[in-house]
Sequence to fold (291 residues):
Amino acid sequence: MKRNLFIVLMLLTGITVKAQEKAIAKVHYLFKHVNDTTQRDKYRRDEVVTYLSPQTSYYTSYSSTRTQKQSAQQMDALNFDGHVIVSKSTSGIRESYLLESSKSNMIEVKRVASDEFLLDAVYPKQDWDIHDDTKVIGGYTCQKATTTFGGRHYTTWFTTDLPFSFGPWKLHGLPGLILEARDDKSEVEFEYSGFDKLADSVQITIGAPVDVILSAPEEVEKLYKAFKTNPKAYMQTKSGGSSSIKKSGVFVTSDVPFSTIDPNKIKSISIKNDDNYKPSSVTNNPLELKP
Fold:
């Protein structure tokens, strides 16, 4: 993968950043979630990534970055005619999570259209049982560990060859990087798909805003419902500045610098859905189950 990955934490005027750490690696996973138990073959999937520093991690979707790469590659072609075709075979997750293990702190970043809102969140804790079983994943020797979290029993495989106490989603706290995780019903799965150590020349920081006004979860959900009901009206309302939520910060992740994509070259954008990917729009089996 390209080494020009960057993560920029953009903040509104007057907000500063604390506890910044230089990201030194990233780990990719293929995420699967059987969101509708009446149609188990129509599950949601996404490519997700966790950016890693010694005491901090940031977990988010990688789908938008893939889309940017597709667009940039097409636009760089000599025969580019102004028409961008995007192939869609994933559903980008709405939530991202910033974990600060040294402070036992977590911030959730929730998306509504192109907007991102910061929410206070309960720091996740897992009680792990580490087993003697081992197997090799991606060339790394991994050890088995199990836990119960969010109403599900998870089996994970972690490697001490990569000494990061993080993993996908909210799973963390083992003496090594989690490369694979799935619940006992195979309804939630994180499959390892790559690890990249970032070059010293790449300046990537992961941090949290300080003195920030966090958004209210119920208000963000109200906005999301409004967007789903009438996307056009939502965008018009947003442009009019009448949003009831003060957006307090934005996490921007990309492998493609925005400056390399010239919108003036684009005449149209077509989204082509993968015929083999038709996830259910119904969610009766959330990622975290109620106790």
In short: Residues 106 and 122 are 7 Å apart (CA to CA). The chain has three helices and 17 strands. The two ends are 41 Å apart (CA to CA). The chain has a mean pLDDT of 79.
